[in-house]
From TrEMBL:
Predominant localisation class: membrane
Identification of the protein by name: Frpr-14
Assigned keywords, A-Z: Membrane, Transmembrane, Transmembrane helix
Domain of life of the source: Eukaryota
GO MF, one annotated term: G protein-coupled receptor activity
Name of the coding gene: WBGene00111406
A GO cellular component annotation in the UniProt record: membrane
Cellular location(s): Membrane
Amino acid sequence: MESAEQVLENMPETTVMEDDLLICSACQGSTDPFYQTYNLIMSGCIMALIGIVGLGGNCLVVRVYLSRTQRIHSSSIYLAALACSDFFLILTALFLFVLEAWRHHNQPSIAWLYVNGTPFIFPLASVFQTSSVYFCVAAAVDCFISVVVPSLKGMCCTPHRARITVLTIMGFCLLYNIPHVFEVHKVSCWDDTANVTSSQICPTTFRQNVFYYTVYYTYMYTTFMAVGPLLLLIVINICVVSMVVYRSKTRPPAGKGGEITERGTGIAEEAEESDLTSLILVVFFFIFCNSTALFVNFLEMILAANATEENPPSNIFVYLVDFSNLLIVVNGTANFFCYLLFGASFKRTLKEVRGPMHKTENRPNVSGISPNYSFV
């Protein structure tokens, strides 16, 4: 999530006391009481509730798309990988943002857990942010090939290639996010509200280096995590939707005969359309939620570039950061409902994996439903 980086974005420059002990509030985005209340509601309560739903939903998605009947399709491999990545993305977001919101309200045990865990959780959050982006891109490209250039489907859209692609993406995500390991650390500080020595998470000197920030965050982040993937997904979605609309207009009407082959073909095409609709919605929600986070990121850079000692950045930025963080968790949670409401094969398989009472092995299967998006 861009939100993982934003843990650091709104931290002011460190303030040091005369005895070289850092003042704890120096690494907080804002100490305004109204913002603290807003942060507790948005991150401490709403995000927590949505995140818990998302954790359960993504577990079901992984179970469905890795089931025996689904994992034979390349699209299922990508969607299972996306759900797995979203699960850990939400989990790390709950740690970084929910705990961070509650630790300021007389919760010493939560504060201790947050301060000691963040140096390890923050790089992991960045890894899963990146993997969620590229698993979504991989699923969209797989859909694009199946719908727009079906002649390449047999060569490109296979479970074996999908598994190789997933492993390659994870390798890239781990390498790309290595710098995040060196960006935060726990420091001793002076709590000027309680007049005691405490601990705080602050950005390191490495993270505050101007050259590093310019190269890694301004150029690399914009290219590989923001504008690049979003533009690609927008183009892919437009092409897929256009092709689906074109085929729906040119497809001959279904025959009125009662033969099982005609009926089965009609059901299969209708089910494939619903599966395609669910994936299009997944990509749409990803574009919407991440575009907001991208806007916040660019706004922060503009505010930082124009800030001076006499004209510091507006406090509105910290409110936008919390909102964009919430949208990232909403995005990771909404995918399950897209599959559940619009994905015919997902709903069918979900009933099968829930238990013996939902199994359908003895029913005649005339649909041949599978999320292959071919329409041919």
